[in-house]
Specification:
The complex is a heterotrimer.
Chain A: H1 3-24, H2 36-48, H3 53-82, H4 85-98, H5 107-114, H6 119-142, H7 146-154, H8 159-196, H9 202-211, H10 215-246
Helix pairs in contact in A: 2-10, 3-6, 3-8, 5-6, 6-8, 8-9, 8-10, 9-10
Chain B: E1 2-4, E2 9-11, E3 14-17, E4 22-24, E5 29-33, H1 40-48, E6 58-60, E7 63-64, E8 73-76, H2 88-94, H3 103-116, H4 132-144, E9 150-154, H5 162-179, E10 182-186, H6 190-196, E11 199-203, E12 210-215, H7 230-250
Chain C: H1 2-30, H2 38-48, H3 52-85, H4 87-101, H5 109-116, H6 120-144, H7 148-156, H8 161-198, H9 204-213, H10 217-245
The chains are: A mainly alpha, B alpha/beta, C mainly alpha.
Chain lengths: ~250, ~260, ~250
């Protein structure tokens, strides 16, 4: 085990132990937060009893929907924009400022237009994710060295073959980065919206548990969300790192 | 005058260099050539006072060099060392930081050096806007503006094309004569070493030791046209004959015979 | 340089006009039942800004945001410098910070509410946790990636530690640190407003959510528009400064 891993594990362990100590000592009172070991116990019980699986499934399905649509549309849009310099230049300030804008502020508006179903949440997730995908795709396509494109022409490759044998493999790490970002944003958008105002889903259950002082439900669910998002993010990051390492870039 | 006694410098368990025993005369143009990894850069850092030898001593102007850069020494590194947050003029003026000159004199001296290096039109540009070769010229300008008595150059023209290198070589000679400093140049270009120097030291493959010391005997007033001289070819081939075997050793093959 | 600037300006104008046209089109399609036109929104906003209540809410948001920003930047810089200067810590903690960056922080809000109670402290804490990570990450990176050659140059010029820090380390790190502060600024604002949307009794975010229960479409559109306007314009100014600091 490398020094790095050891360091990281120690930090996490130290943090959890600190929480445990503070809770047991009463510095953090029971009403605010139960000790970590109780939270883990509640989570285990929840998973074993398959409670909230329907709600979790629903949220994840919405996240997947937001992710997939943002990713596919984003990659296509990015590719089209890449070939269209004029339009791209016009949209550039929008992309540069996009993530400073509180996209969640549109949530009330979407509720008014689309009603209180799943639509607004998925739309927010989509809106958050799509620009990251477009920008990352553009970035990847920009970086294809012209010498590789010239090599393709010298070897008589047509447009489709160039895309398949040169552009796509070259851009693979960037497409992976785009997926990682899209997933993170879709997650934030959907779960966040469920939190603010929804009638079902993981975010809603946490919000409901909060209003009902139900720490035994709330904390395990929060922990579950944290674990899920960290796991998904780490997996994709690791894959991304492997691809980049092959090229001598980290 | 720099005296370098046996100076094997090792980091960890790597015997990087030495023993080396050389003496560089004041005011001479001294070059070092050798295969990659032989410790040329380490030698430069030792003389500059940026590293310490494991054994032995180094003296500059009669005083031992230890752990700090002696006064009157300037270094031009291989990598781009321009400060990206300062423009060309400010970068060059930074070189006069250590000297107690007033602002007006600083501006004057910096401007003179900037003109000398052909950067007059770019005085207000930032390094990010310049080519690699120009950035290297800025670094050289920043070093020489303080008129150091010893100028150490670590493959300063590595990133430039051949023609620019030749012109830069002429520049270095002119500067050398103008400032009357001692120049210590590391280069992998043999023709450059022969063209510019009074003496050339050839280093062996790692751990680098001195395997040849060549005197060119050129007159002080020289420029790149020195290549016309008969001796030029002979000197260059003498360097290569010695170096070829060392370079092959470095490449991992042993050659016996010619 | 001149031509570049005017081209960017022209493009931005075209973009803004395009967005307004898109908005007007959406309004024409969806209708008064759920949208307002750009002109109606601006008019309503004008009237809104003449009420005392509006300024009360705005002040509350800005107050919380201001304090959150100061905390986020101060702590972020501290963490970033600390981790950046110590190689092992920086390398180990960076992936963990990145992982924290990607979690939906709103899920932590109930915990913050339980800890701080409903009030401005919770909003400040919530805003701060959004901004602290980008500031820390960018600062960490800025310090870590100072080119060693610049430090060597400082050594050759015999700069002592103070001079080295002041004249080389600091200017070398400033551009990246500023980018971190810029991102932190935007995210702190988003975090503050988001917190208000979930649980607050004052502030623009609260106003927004309240407007839904009142089904006050004018209010929804005006506040949304205002938030987007503020966020976008401040960011553009910060971006311009950012680009200048990175010097061409």
């Amino acid at each position: 085990m490398s020094r790095l891993r050891l360091y990281q594990i120690s930090v996490v362990t130290a943090f959890v132990l600190l929480l445990e100590a503070l809770c047991l000592a009463g510095v953090i009172d029971k009403v605010t937060m139960p000790p970590p070991h109780i939270i883990l116990g509640d989570l285990a019980r929840m998973v074993l009893a398959r409670r909230y699986f329907a709600e979790i499934g629903k949220s994840l399905a919405n996240v997947l929907l937001a992710f997939t649509s943002a990713y596919l549309i984003g990659v296509v849009a990015g590719t089209i924009l890449h070939g269209n310099k004029r339009v791209r230049e016009i949209l550039d300030p929008l992309f540069a400022t996009y993530y400073a804008i509180p996209v969640f502020a549109f949530y009330p508006l979407f509720i008014v237009i689309f009603g209180l179903g799943d639509g607004p949440q998925v739309l927010i997730g989509f809106m958050l994710a799509i620009v990251a995908v477009i920008v990352t795709t553009l970035n990847g396509l920009d970086r294809v060295p012209s010498v590789l494109k010239k090599t393709a022409r010298v070897n008589g490759l047509n447009a489709l073959q160039t895309t398949r044998y040169i552009t796509l493999p070259f851009c693979a790490p960037y497409l992976l980065t785009a997926a990682k970002l899209a997933l993170a944003y879709a997650f934030i958008g959907v779960i966040g919206s469920e939190f603010i105002m929804a009638r079902s889903g993981m975010g809603y259950e946490i919000s409901y548990a909060y209003t009902n002082f139900d720490n035994a439900t709330m904390y395990p669910l929060i922990l579950l969300i944290l674990l899920l998002s960290i796991a998904a993010n780490s997996l994709l990051s690791r894959w991304e790192r492997i691809l980049l390492a092959r090229r001598g870039q980290n | 005058m720099t005296k370098v006694f046996p100076a094997p410098a090792g980091g960890e368990v790597v015997h990087a260099l030495g023993p080396i025993d050389i003496e560089i005369k004041r005011g001479e143009f001294f070059a070092v050539v050798g295969p990659s990894g032989c410790g040329k850069s380490t030698l430069l850092e030792l003389i500059a006072g940026l590293t310490d030898p494991t054994e032995g001593e180094i003296e500059f102007e009669g005083r031992a060099i230890q752990k700090s850069v002696p006064d009157g020494v300037g270094v031009v590194f291989q990598e781009d060392a321009c400060f990206p947050w300062l423009n060309v003029r400010e970068n060059v003026e930074f070189g006069l930081r250590q000297k107690n000159t007033d602002a007006a004199q600083k501006t004057r001296r910096a401007a003179a050096v900037i003109d000398m290096m052909g950067l007059h039109d770019f005085a207000r540009s930032y390094p990010a806007q310049l080519s690699g070769g120009m950035r290297q010229r800025v670094c050289i300008a920043r070093t020489i503006v303080a008129e150091p008595r010893l100028i150490l150059l670590d493959e300063p023209f590595g990133a430039l094309d051949q023609q620019t290198r030749l012109l830069m070589g002429d520049e270095m000679l002119r500067l050398w004569r103008q400032i009357s400093s001692t120049v210590f140049l590391i280069t992998h270009a043999l023709d450059e070493a022969v063209m510019l120097s009074d003496r050339i030291m050839v280093m062996s493959a790692r751990p680098g030791k001195v395997i040849d010391l060549v005197e060119t005997g050129w007159p002080r007033e020289r420029d790149s046209r020195i290549v016309e001289r008969e001796n030029f070819g002979a000197l260059t081939s003498r360097l290569w004959k010695t170096l070829r075997e060392e370079s092959l050793k470095t490449m991992g093959r042993v050659v016996s015979g010619v | 340089m001149q031509r570049e600037a005017s081209a960017t300006f022209r493009n931005t104008v075209i973009l803004i006009v395009g967005l307004l046209l898109f908005w007007e089109l959406a309004y024409l399609i969806v209708g008064q039942v759920a949208l307002r036109s750009p002109w109606q929104t601006i008019q309503f906003l004008g009237k809104l800004m003449q009420t005392d209540l509006f300024w009360l809410h705005l002040a509350d948001t800005l107050k919380a945001f201001g304090v959150a920003l100061v905390i986020a930047v101060a702590l972020g810089l501290l963490i970033g410098f600390g981790l950046g200067l110590h190689r092992l810590s920086g390398d180990a903690m960076e992936p963990m910070l990145v992982a924290l960056y990607s979690i939906p922080k709103i899920t932590l809000y109930p915990i913050i509410l339980l800890a701080f109670g409903i009030g401005i402290s919770a909003k400040i804490a919530f805003g701060a946790i959004h901004g602290i990570i980008p500031v820390a990450l960018f600062t960490l990176n800025a310090v870590r990636t100072i080119k060693p050659i610049l430090i060597k140059t400082g050594n050759v010029m015999k700069l002592n530690s103070t001079a080295m820090a002041r004249e080389i380390l600091f200017p070398a790190a400033v551009p990246e640190i500023f980018t971190g502060i810029r991102v932190g600024f935007s995210l702190t604002l988003i975090g503050t407003v988001l917190g208000e949307m979930f649980a607050a009794q004052r502030g623009l975010g609260y106003l927004l959510m309240n407007a839904i229960s009142l089904y006050n479409i004018d209010l929804i559109m005006s506040v949304t528009f205002l938030l987007v306007l503020i966020a976008a314009s401040v960011n553009m100014v910060l971006l311009a400064i950012d680009r200048r600091l990175h010097h061409g």
